[in-house]
Fold this sequence. Notes:
This is Adenosylcobinamide kinase. By secondary structure, the chain is of the alpha+beta class. It has three helices and eleven strands; from the N terminus they run ββββαβββββαββα.
Amino acid sequence: MTQPFRHCTSYVSAVWPDITVDYADDHLLITSAEPLTAVSSALWRGGWTTATHFVNWKVPLTYRCENPAEMMREQMAVWGYPADAAIGLQTAAKITHAALEEEAGDRYRIVCCATAGTSNGARAGKIRETFSAYQCGTINIFLLIDALLTPSAMINGIITATEAKSAVLQDLQIVDEDGEIATGTTTDSIVLASTQKFEYGAPHRFAGAATTIGNAIGRLVYKAVYEAVATQGE
Protein backbone atom coordinates (compact mmCIF):
# COMPACT_ATOMS: atom_id res chain seq x y z
CA MET A 1 0.00 0.00 0.00
CA THR A 2 1.48 3.34 -0.97
CA GLN A 3 -1.17 6.11 -0.96
CA PRO A 4 -4.30 4.63 0.63
CA PHE A 5 -6.04 7.93 1.35
CA ARG A 6 -6.64 8.66 -2.30
CA HIS A 7 -9.34 5.99 -2.06
CA CYS A 8 -10.20 5.37 1.62
CA THR A 9 -10.07 6.96 5.06
CA SER A 10 -8.56 4.22 7.22
CA TYR A 11 -5.57 1.90 6.94
CA VAL A 12 -4.48 -0.99 9.16
CA SER A 13 -0.89 -2.16 8.84
CA ALA A 14 -0.59 -5.58 7.23
CA VAL A 15 2.65 -6.42 9.04
CA TRP A 16 1.74 -4.79 12.36
CA PRO A 17 -2.04 -4.69 12.90
CA ASP A 18 -1.67 -2.71 16.14
CA ILE A 19 -0.86 0.33 13.98
CA THR A 20 -3.73 2.13 12.27
CA VAL A 21 -3.71 5.31 10.20
CA ASP A 22 -6.89 7.36 9.80
CA TYR A 23 -7.58 10.25 7.45
CA ALA A 24 -9.71 13.32 8.17
CA ASP A 25 -10.01 16.47 6.09
CA ASP A 26 -7.60 18.40 8.33
CA HIS A 27 -5.25 15.74 9.74
CA LEU A 28 -3.88 12.23 9.75
CA LEU A 29 -3.94 10.18 12.94
CA ILE A 30 -1.59 7.25 13.49
CA THR A 31 -2.58 5.15 16.48
CA SER A 32 -0.63 2.47 18.33
CA ALA A 33 -2.37 -0.07 20.55
CA GLU A 34 0.49 0.30 23.06
CA PRO A 35 2.64 3.23 24.16
CA LEU A 36 5.76 3.75 22.07
CA THR A 37 9.04 5.33 23.13
CA ALA A 38 9.64 8.21 20.76
CA VAL A 39 12.24 10.77 19.79
CA SER A 40 11.21 13.52 17.42
CA SER A 41 11.49 17.09 16.24
CA ALA A 42 7.73 17.48 16.70
CA LEU A 43 6.03 20.77 17.46
CA TRP A 44 3.90 19.11 20.14
CA ARG A 45 5.72 16.90 22.68
CA GLY A 46 8.91 16.68 20.69
CA GLY A 47 12.17 15.30 22.07
CA TRP A 48 12.07 12.07 24.09
CA THR A 49 8.64 10.94 25.26
CA THR A 50 6.05 8.16 25.03
CA ALA A 51 2.93 8.29 22.88
CA THR A 52 0.06 6.28 21.44
CA HIS A 53 -1.27 8.99 19.11
CA PHE A 54 0.70 10.61 16.29
CA VAL A 55 -0.93 13.53 14.47
CA ASN A 56 -0.05 15.24 11.19
CA TRP A 57 -2.18 18.41 11.12
CA LYS A 58 -2.89 19.95 7.74
CA VAL A 59 -2.76 23.75 7.90
CA PRO A 60 -2.92 26.42 5.14
CA LEU A 61 0.22 27.68 3.40
CA THR A 62 -0.61 31.07 4.93
CA TYR A 63 -0.63 29.62 8.48
CA ARG A 64 1.13 31.77 11.07
CA CYS A 65 0.80 31.48 14.83
CA GLU A 66 2.67 33.05 17.74
CA ASN A 67 2.13 29.99 19.93
CA PRO A 68 1.72 26.95 17.64
CA ALA A 69 2.31 24.43 20.44
CA GLU A 70 -0.59 25.83 22.45
CA MET A 71 -2.76 25.89 19.34
CA MET A 72 -1.88 22.23 18.75
CA ARG A 73 -2.82 21.37 22.33
CA GLU A 74 -6.18 23.08 21.91
CA GLN A 75 -6.78 21.30 18.61
CA MET A 76 -6.08 17.93 20.24
CA ALA A 77 -8.97 18.67 22.61
CA VAL A 78 -11.23 19.56 19.68
CA TRP A 79 -10.44 16.21 18.06
CA GLY A 80 -10.84 14.36 21.36
CA TYR A 81 -7.27 13.02 21.43
CA PRO A 82 -5.23 12.67 24.64
CA ALA A 83 -2.76 15.54 24.35
CA ASP A 84 -0.46 14.08 27.00
CA ALA A 85 -0.16 10.83 24.99
CA ALA A 86 0.13 12.42 21.56
CA ILE A 87 2.88 13.77 19.34
CA GLY A 88 1.87 16.48 16.89
CA LEU A 89 3.36 17.72 13.61
CA GLN A 90 1.99 20.25 11.15
CA THR A 91 2.16 20.31 7.37
CA ALA A 92 0.93 22.35 4.45
CA ALA A 93 1.34 19.36 2.11
CA LYS A 94 -1.47 17.20 0.72
CA ILE A 95 -2.33 14.60 3.33
CA THR A 96 -4.43 12.74 0.76
CA HIS A 97 -1.08 11.95 -0.85
CA ALA A 98 0.48 10.54 2.31
CA ALA A 99 2.59 7.51 1.36
CA LEU A 100 2.88 4.41 3.53
CA GLU A 101 5.48 1.65 3.40
CA GLU A 102 5.99 -1.26 5.79
CA GLU A 103 8.15 -4.32 6.31
CA ALA A 104 8.87 -7.12 8.79
CA GLY A 105 12.40 -8.50 9.10
CA ASP A 106 15.29 -9.24 11.45
CA ARG A 107 13.70 -8.64 14.88
CA TYR A 108 11.67 -5.68 13.63
CA ARG A 109 8.43 -4.52 12.09
CA ILE A 110 8.37 -1.03 10.60
CA VAL A 111 5.59 1.24 9.35
CA CYS A 112 6.62 4.48 7.62
CA CYS A 113 4.25 7.32 6.73
CA ALA A 114 5.40 10.42 4.85
CA THR A 115 3.78 13.59 3.56
CA ALA A 116 5.69 15.98 1.35
CA GLY A 117 5.71 19.30 -0.41
CA THR A 118 8.90 20.86 -1.72
CA SER A 119 7.99 24.43 -2.63
CA ASN A 120 10.45 25.60 0.05
CA GLY A 121 13.27 23.24 -0.87
CA ALA A 122 16.55 24.12 0.83
CA ARG A 123 20.16 22.97 0.82
CA ALA A 124 21.76 22.58 4.25
CA GLY A 125 25.25 24.01 4.71
CA LYS A 126 24.96 27.18 2.63
CA ILE A 127 24.44 30.81 3.58
CA ARG A 128 20.84 31.90 3.08
CA GLU A 129 18.13 34.09 4.56
CA THR A 130 17.02 32.73 7.93
CA PHE A 131 14.05 33.25 10.23
CA SER A 132 13.45 32.85 13.95
CA ALA A 133 9.70 32.34 13.55
CA TYR A 134 8.04 28.91 13.43
CA GLN A 135 6.68 27.48 10.19
CA CYS A 136 4.82 24.21 9.69
CA GLY A 137 6.64 21.13 8.45
CA THR A 138 6.74 20.29 4.75
CA ILE A 139 8.34 16.83 4.57
CA ASN A 140 7.03 14.99 7.60
CA ILE A 141 8.15 11.43 8.32
CA PHE A 142 6.66 9.05 10.89
CA LEU A 143 8.64 5.87 11.59
CA LEU A 144 6.85 3.39 13.85
CA ILE A 145 9.07 0.45 14.80
CA ASP A 146 8.29 -2.77 16.66
CA ALA A 147 11.77 -3.65 17.92
CA LEU A 148 14.25 -3.17 20.75
CA LEU A 149 16.70 -0.37 19.99
CA THR A 150 19.25 1.40 22.13
CA PRO A 151 18.75 5.17 22.41
CA SER A 152 21.78 5.72 20.18
CA ALA A 153 20.32 3.34 17.57
CA MET A 154 17.12 5.40 17.55
CA ILE A 155 19.13 8.54 16.81
CA ASN A 156 21.10 6.56 14.22
CA GLY A 157 17.76 5.64 12.62
CA ILE A 158 16.85 9.32 12.30
CA ILE A 159 20.18 9.97 10.58
CA THR A 160 19.54 7.12 8.13
CA ALA A 161 16.00 8.35 7.46
CA THR A 162 17.28 11.87 6.79
CA GLU A 163 19.90 10.55 4.38
CA ALA A 164 17.19 8.62 2.53
CA LYS A 165 15.01 11.73 2.31
CA SER A 166 17.90 13.72 0.87
CA ALA A 167 18.59 10.94 -1.65
CA VAL A 168 15.01 11.24 -2.90
CA LEU A 169 15.37 14.96 -3.49
CA GLN A 170 18.61 14.37 -5.35
CA ASP A 171 17.11 11.64 -7.53
CA LEU A 172 14.02 13.75 -8.29
CA GLN A 173 16.17 16.83 -8.97
CA ILE A 174 14.38 18.98 -6.39
CA VAL A 175 16.21 22.30 -6.13
CA ASP A 176 16.44 25.22 -3.73
CA GLU A 177 15.82 28.88 -4.54
CA ASP A 178 19.24 29.13 -6.21
CA GLY A 179 18.79 26.06 -8.40
CA GLU A 180 21.06 23.80 -6.32
CA ILE A 181 19.94 20.29 -5.34
CA ALA A 182 17.94 20.50 -2.11
CA THR A 183 18.78 18.32 0.88
CA GLY A 184 15.38 18.91 2.45
CA THR A 185 12.99 21.79 2.94
CA THR A 186 13.18 24.60 5.46
CA THR A 187 10.57 23.00 7.71
CA ASP A 188 10.98 19.21 7.75
CA SER A 189 10.12 17.11 10.79
CA ILE A 190 10.49 13.47 11.84
CA VAL A 191 9.18 11.08 14.49
CA LEU A 192 10.80 7.74 15.30
CA ALA A 193 8.89 5.64 17.83
CA SER A 194 9.59 2.11 19.05
CA THR A 195 7.86 -0.53 21.18
CA GLN A 196 11.18 -1.36 22.89
CA LYS A 197 10.04 -4.94 23.45
CA PHE A 198 12.50 -6.99 25.49
CA GLU A 199 10.96 -10.11 23.97
CA TYR A 200 13.15 -9.45 20.95
CA GLY A 201 16.22 -10.30 23.05
CA ALA A 202 19.40 -8.53 21.97
CA PRO A 203 18.76 -4.90 21.03
CA HIS A 204 19.62 -3.25 17.76
CA ARG A 205 22.64 -1.13 18.73
CA PHE A 206 23.10 0.52 15.36
CA ALA A 207 20.73 1.62 12.59
CA GLY A 208 23.05 2.73 9.82
CA ALA A 209 22.56 1.79 6.18
CA ALA A 210 24.62 -1.42 6.50
CA THR A 211 22.54 -2.87 9.36
CA THR A 212 19.41 -4.91 8.75
CA ILE A 213 17.11 -2.48 10.53
CA GLY A 214 18.90 0.61 9.22
CA ASN A 215 18.77 -0.65 5.66
CA ALA A 216 15.03 -1.23 6.07
CA ILE A 217 14.54 2.26 7.51
CA GLY A 218 16.40 3.78 4.58
CA ARG A 219 14.49 1.82 1.96
CA LEU A 220 11.05 2.44 3.46
CA VAL A 221 11.67 6.14 3.99
CA TYR A 222 13.05 6.46 0.47
CA LYS A 223 10.02 4.77 -1.08
CA ALA A 224 7.48 6.70 1.01
CA VAL A 225 9.08 10.11 0.52
CA TYR A 226 9.67 9.44 -3.17
CA GLU A 227 5.99 8.63 -3.70
CA ALA A 228 4.83 11.67 -1.72
CA VAL A 229 7.21 14.07 -3.48
CA ALA A 230 6.69 12.67 -6.98
CA THR A 231 2.89 12.99 -6.74
CA GLN A 232 2.65 16.32 -4.88
CA GLY A 233 1.46 18.11 -8.02
CA GLU A 234 -1.36 15.68 -8.80
